Amino acid sequence: MYLGIQASMPPTDVAVRLAQVLNVTVEYLVTGETHGEKPANKYKIMEMDMEVLPEQVVDSLKMMVRTLAQQERERGVEPT
After folding, report:
1. pLDDT tens digits, residue range 31-49?
2. I want to staple 10 with a disulfide (CB 3.0 to 4.6 A). Which of 6, 14, 18, 65 is the partner?
3. DSSP summary character for residue 74
4. Do 18 and 10 contact (CB within 8 A), yes or no?
């Protein structure tokens, strides 16, 4: 939460850019409250890694993840 650390707010354009880089809303950046939204994409590093892989590898990984997720759903495992 920015206001908890700093004595003043950054300019609006800086706050927007910070929020984009951190993958959070400006509201979360300022208040620390999410209102039901996740504050950050916990898979961002994986997403960035996949961007450098060949498309064929990415497609294989997607299929593998879908298959594993479906198996977990069938077991009744809830998303975290």
Report:
1. 777 666 555 566 777 888 8
2. 14
3. H
4. yes
